[in-house]
Amino acid sequence: MIQSYHIDQICDLAVIRAWSLEYRGDAYTVLLKIIDDLKRRPVKKSYANVVPVTQSSGTGKSKTVDRIATERILFPLCLRENLGKNYFGTLQRILPLEKINAIFFLAYPPTDVAVYDHLLGAPSTKMENECKAYIGSFLCSLFTSAHQLAERFWQGSSMTSYGCMAKTFYDFFSDISQRNDFYYGVITNVQSTDVWKSFETLHDSLKKRCSDWPAESCPLLISIDEVHTLYTHRPQDIGSDYTLYSRMKSVFSKGVSQNLAVICLDTANHVSKLAPSKSVAASFRERDDELFLPVPFTELPFDAYILADPLTPGQANLETVGSLEFTAKFGRPW
Asked: What is the Cβ-side half-sphere exposure of residue 92, based on CA atoms within 13 angstroms?
C-alpha cells in the first residue's frame, strides 16, 4: 500500500525543486519571449506589463514560472486560500520509490499567508484612491525589502553576474522558512511612500553590482499565483465594477516604463476576469483602442501527472494513445 507523508516528515522543498527540475520542458522560453516582447513595446502602446497565464489544474503553470526564476530575478507570490495541513494537491514524487516507497501529494507552490491576509485586508475597491494606495504601499515595501536583501547578499563593491544574482534569489525563496520570514517582514514594514522610486532604488542597486545587466530582456519579475483571490469580489466590494486585481493592474500601469513585468497565474475558470478583453475591461484606460492587452498564455508542458510513469519507446501505440488512461497523464488541458 502506498503511504502519504507530510513534507516535514520526509524532506524540504529544496529536494522537491531539485527533483522536479529534470521534468520541466521549454515552455518557459516561449513565455519569456512574450514578456520581453511586451517590455520592448513603446510605453504609450501598453496599459501594464502584466502577462496572464491560464490553463487547467496540473498543467505546469507554476513549474513553468519556477523554471523562469532560475534565469531571471523573480519575486514569487502565491495567494492560495488556506487549505489546511491535509490538503493533497499535485502529484509529487519526492525521493526514489525504492528508497521511501512513498508518493507525496503537495500543494505547490506554498501559500504566502502573510501576503494573502494583508492584500485581502485592503479597503473596498469602491474607494479607488485608498485601495490603490494600500496596494502601492505593499509593493513599495516589497521593493524596499528586496533592496535590503540584495544589500545583504552583495556587500561592498564586488561585481557579480546576472545569472548568479537570479540563482541567489531563487535559492533564497526556495527555502520556505526564509520565504515566510521575508514576506512577514514586507507586511510588517509597509509604509506609504512612492512605489516606483522604491523600485528604481532596487533596480539601480542591482544594476550597479551586476557585470552583465541585461539590456534587451526584462530583468525583474513578479509572479502572482492563484490570482483569483484578487479578482473574486469580497463582501465589501459588492456593487463595485472593480476588483483588487483590476486595482492592482492600475497600480502597475503607472510603472509601465519600468524594467518590471508581472506574471499572473490561475486556472481557466474565469478568463474574462483574469485577462478581460477591451469590451469588458474594468478600467477605462484598458478599453483604449490604442493600448495593447496581452492575451492569456496557455502553451504549457502538460506534464504534471506523467512523473510517476514516464513515457518510454515502444510503450504506446495508435490504439492506446486514445485512451483516457494515456491522456490523463498529461493533466487536464484547457
From this structure: 27
Task: Give this prediction's pTM.
Answer: 0.81
- Single out the residue of 74, 81, 86 nearest to residue 113, CA to CA: 81
Q: What is the pLDDT of residues 239-282, one digit of tens each?
A: 999 999 999 999 999 999 999 999 999 987 788 889 988 888 88
Q: Which residues of 262-299 are buried (b: 16+ CB within 10 A; e: fewer)?
A: bbbbbbbeebebbbbeeeebbbeebbeeebebbebbbe
SS3 227: coil
The set of cell numbers assigned to 324 is: 483516457
Domain presence at residue 104:
no
Structural domain for 190, as ranges? 28-78+112-301
Contact 206, 214 (CB under 8 A): no
Q: Does some domain include residue 19? A: no
Residue 74 and residue 221: Cα distance in Å, rounded? 5
Rounded to whole angstroms, the Cα distance separating 133 from 128 reads 8
Residue 107 belongs to a domain: no
Which three-class secondary structure state does DSSP give residue 134? helix
| pLDDT at res. 328 | 64
Which percentage of the chain shows pLDDT scores above 70? 79
Q: How many domains does the chain have?
A: 1
CA dihedral 219, 224, 225, 226 (to 10 degrees): -160
- Listed residue (271, 266, 214) closest to 32, CA to CA: 214
**57, part of any domain:** yes
User: Which residue type occupies 266?
Assistant: D
Given a cut of 90, whether residue 213 has pLDDT beyond it is yes
Please, are residues 206 and 146 in contact by the beta-carbon 8 Å criterion?
no
| Alpha-helical regions (H) of the chain | 7-10, 13-20, 27-40, 61-68, 97-100, 113-120, 128-153, 162-174, 176-188, 195-209, 228-231, 244-253, 271-274, 324-327
Whole-angstrom Cα distance, residue 240 to residue 256?
25
